[in-house]
Amino acid sequence: MKRRFGWEFNGVRQHEPYFENFVKRLDSLRKKSALYEKLWQDFGPHSTWERGFMGAAACRGIGWLVPTCDPLTGRLFNV
Fold first, then answer.
1. Cα(29)–Cα(5) distance, rounded to whole angstroms?
2. DSSP state, 69?
3. What is the pLDDT of residues 28-38, one digit of tens each?
4. Confidence class for position 25, pLDDT limits 50, 70, 90
5. 63-74 pLDDT, tens per residue?
6. Is 58 left (phi over 0), alpha (psi -120 to 50) or beta?
7. pLDDT value for 72
8. Euclidean distance between CA atoms 40 and 18, whole angstroms
9. Would you list the domain boundaries of the chain?
10. 43 to each of 29, 33, 36, 48, how far by Cα in Å?
11. Distance of CA 21 to the CA centre of its chain
12. Spatial separation of the C-alpha atoms in residues 67 and 76, rounded to whole Å
């Protein structure tokens, strides 16, 4: 019963913000935001991060692609 709980639970948690984005009208990423500045620090121009993110999203396989911050280094990664 618990064998796949982590997988299923994670899927539910990932889908919640995914579907919320269909309802909310989000503004584009503000250039003075902390996230924009962190993306610039770790990836350079936003377009560089976006190309890498979209390239990773095009890979075959199951699962999610999310930008995440490594708590040990403070660095952003697309995983």
1. 34
2. E
3. 778 888 988 99
4. low
5. 778 889 999 999
6. alpha
7. 96
8. 24
9. 5-78
10. 15, 15, 10, 6
11. 13
12. 7
